[in-house]
Amino acid sequence: MIKAVTGTRDTLPTDIPKWNFLESIVESVFSKFNYKEIRTPVFEDTNLFARGIGESTDIVGKEMYTFVDRSGESITLRPEMTAGVVRALIEHSLDKKQNLNKLYYMGPMFRQERPQAGRYRQFHQFGAEALGSNDPLLDAEMIIMAYDIFARLGLKNLLVKINSLGVPSSRENYKKILRDYLQPYFEKLTSESKKRFDTNILRLFDSKEENDRKIMEDAPLLIDYLDDESLRHFEKVKEALLASRIPFEVDAKLVRGLDYYTHTTFEVVSGSVGSQSALCGGGRYNLLVKELGGPDIPGIGFAAGMERILLACENENSFSVKEENLDLYLVAIGKGLENFIYSNAVNFRREGLSVDLDYLGRSVKAQMREANRTNSRYVLLIGGEEFDRGEVVLKNMGTGEQKIFTKDDFEKILLTVKEN
Ligand code: AMP
User: Fold this and answer.
1) Which atom of ligand 1 is nearest to the CA of 79?
2) pLDDT, one tens digit for every residue, the chain (420 residues)
3) Which of 183, 262, 365, 394 has the highest count of CB atoms within 10 angstroms of its CB?
4) CA–centroid distance, residue 94 to ligand 1 (Å)
5) Which residue among 280, 288, 300, 309 has the greatest number of ligand 1 atoms within 8 angstroms of its CB, and so is best to mutate?
6) Which of left, alpha, beta for 285 (phi over 0: left; psi -120 to 50: alpha)?
């Protein structure tokens, strides 16, 4: 038997209502903040991600689904959306049409990671990008939107962590200080951290190795070496969060080690999903648009993992979705009325009712069971002696009450079902 590829999942009809609920909240919150949806292709030129995410990152280094297509081009399934959104902004000169573009997205992403709870190879993210302004209020806005979405889902066990990576000049200065601090410990570092020492030294704060962590415990922190402008920016972000009643904590070790990151970085973690606890992550990237060949405009964004959010919701039992009701089930009594029943079903549907009927030649009893299983609010019994008299029977499945209509009383039946 052929099975779904490792790390991918089916979303079955029974799971769809909670996905729909999440998607509706995402759309609702983003649109309240005046973000417009953007959709970009699921695959892009590999160079976009190599340049847009950075060669030294895990994503580009070991996780991308990259292949050469029949025309010999190197293609990659998108592992995240920021690079694609920035490419689209540049390609369509969106920045010339309006100075600030506030965009949001939702969709599948692909990374070849080791599958585990909360980590998949095809997963879904929603996120936002604001391109064109360096206002710290936008940094705060990202965090507020993420937090509001989580709150509307009923999530409680949340922690917002924020940090500032400053601007490249102060960061370069700090990297030298960090390098000097680490030099005496170099031989004790894991091989991965040794590599990062050269390629992306800030990422040493992300190491999960006990020994690396001990070494990093006393490491100098970037936040203590920030220039005045970066500190002022960070203060404004914090003020805006306080004013919006967002509980947060400064985590000086929160690095999202990309060179074009500037100023604010943040994560929202949940205490309800085990080790893969980050529900979302984001940051300011004032150098990325230029790096990708566009104008020199600043940006900020975040991305949130939808599977992980739904897992947190499930573990906290944070919301429940109503099961879908069918308005009407048409029950055939006996044979010979298929055309009448079928055309009535189509007409009721065209008038806005959700309607189903039997396609399996089942007994009346089995059809009634099906009407129950589908939570039908009404059943219309068609056939038998009543039909011979020119009548049909409408049964309210909630109250058990039955009403008789003449068989051509389509309008009256429609009204009765719609009214209740
Ligand atoms: P990142 O783009 O790596 O910053 O990830 C942003 C968010 O996407 C994370 O906080 C997770 O919630 C989610 N995420 C990232 N990778 C995966 C994955 N492999 N499976 C499921 N969710 C993921």
Assistant:
1) 2
2) 999 999 999 999 999 999 999 999 999 999 999 999 999 999 999 999 999 988 888 898 899 999 999 999 999 999 999 999 999 999 999 999 999 999 999 999 999 998 888 899 999 999 999 999 999 999 999 999 999 999 999 999 999 999 999 998 888 999 999 999 999 999 999 998 999 899 889 989 988 889 999 999 999 999 999 999 999 999 999 999 999 999 999 999 998 767 788 999 999 999 999 888 999 999 999 999 999 999 999 999 999 999 999 999 999 999 999 888 999 999 999 999 999 999 999 999 999 999 999 999 999 999 999 999 999 999 999 999 999 999 999 999 999 999 999 999 999 999 999 998
3) 262
4) 27
5) 280
6) beta
Cα dihedral 374, 380, 381, 382 sign: negative
Q: What are phi and psi of 344, to 5 degrees?
A: -65, -45
| Nearest protein Cα to ligand 1, atom 21 | 119
| Best mutation site among 6, 123, 142 for ligand 1 pocket (most ligand atoms within 8 Å of CB) | 123
| pLDDT above 90 as % of the chain | 89
Q: What is the mean pLDDT of the chain?
A: 95
Edge-to-edge strand order for the sheet containing 299-305?
A: 36-37, 101-110, 122-131, 299-305, 278-284, 262-270, 158-164, 248-250
Do 344 and 311 meet the contact criterion of CB atoms below 8 Å apart? no
d(CA 8, CA 122): 5
How far is the first Cα of the chain from the last one, in angstroms, to the nearest whole number?
A: 47
CA of 82 to the centre of ligand 1 (A): 13
For residue 305, report the distance from its CA to the centre of ligand 1, in Å: 5
Other C-beta atoms lying within 10 Å of the C-beta of residue 315: 15
Per the DSSP assignment, residues forming a β-bridge with 125 are: 107, 305
Which protein residues touch ligand 1 with a CB less than 6 Å away? 80, 111, 113, 119-120, 123, 125, 278-281, 303-305, 307-308
Ligand 1 atom nearest to 304, measured from its CA: 7
Closest residue by Cα to atom 8, ligand 1, is 305
CA separation for the pair 179, 173 (Å, rounded): 10
Angle between helices 82-91 and 46-53 (to 10 degrees): 110
Of 14, 83, 65, nearest in space to 301 by CA: 83
Alpha-carbon distance values, 314 to 107, 159, 323, 404 (Å): 21, 18, 16, 45
Q: By C-alpha distance, which of 304, 303, 306, 298 is closest to 130?
A: 298
